[in-house]
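Reviewer 2 asked us to include a model.

Predict the structure of this chain.
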Amino acid sequence: MKRIPRWLRRLALTLFVMTAVVGLGLTALLSTASGLRLAWGIVGPLLPSSITVEAVSGRLAGPVEMEGFSYTSDRLRIAVRRATIDWDLGSLWSRIVDVRAIDAHDVELELLDHAPPARPGASSGPAPYSLPVEVRVGEATVRSISLGGLPGGFPETVDSLELLEGAYRSEASIGALRVYGPDGSLRVSGRLRTDGRYPFDVEVSGTLLPPEPYAEVELEAEASGDLDAMRAMVGVHRPLEIVASAAVRDVLGARTICEPSHRTLRKVGPAPRSKPRAASIPCGSPGPAASPLRRRAPSTWSWS
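Predicted model (structure tokens):
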């Protein structure tokens, strides 16, 4: 049997030792707190000045806990007291940020400036936007949200927000977004592309709790279209059964709001102490006819 040359044995031993050292180093980097501190010491100084993080702990492979996160732009401020993120680091090789779960507490959202009202006429719309990687979120929970800088009539607090199956790169996809607040709860699902004319398709359902003496309101809404034209339908199930629909041209400029229609189909349950006021929809010049919008089973009514 031919003897293996000494130089080849030494080369094999050297490669084995180097592989073992690299493997141990990667394990320490991904699976220990010191590895996360080392990685954050490199990445942290590279963040733009608009983003600050007070402290980071956990493991680079997840979960990672951040404290005192804030983002500030000329129009928006976001602050998160504490957030825990569990993600699949291996998916980065496929250019996917796969987040298994997010749990955030005490979030503040504030609008610092409002854009001037759009002038009548066709609007150019926002520029196309996309991320270099795809971001997927399996589930996310945000507790205690305060809202500031919004116009009057909008809520100032949200108790919690729950997201199931969200994704974004050039298209935002929401499997189910549930919002709970002192004024009721909503469930939102849909898609929005952030290029071209921003086509979208959104469904909303929920329960609103107006102040006394008004009764609890159950509603459902659908909207689809793009920045050039949009069709929308809103259905109220309690205390009255009402459906309303409208088509809008030039969504950002709101140049024309056409084909409004509303109809009370029937009363549901006991009569409220005060007669509810039906929302009116202004109408401009006539537009293209909207396609019939039908509510799904088990209800039987439809409106077109």
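The chain has two helices and 16 strands. Confidence is low (pLDDT under 50) at residues 270-304. We have added this to the supplementary material.
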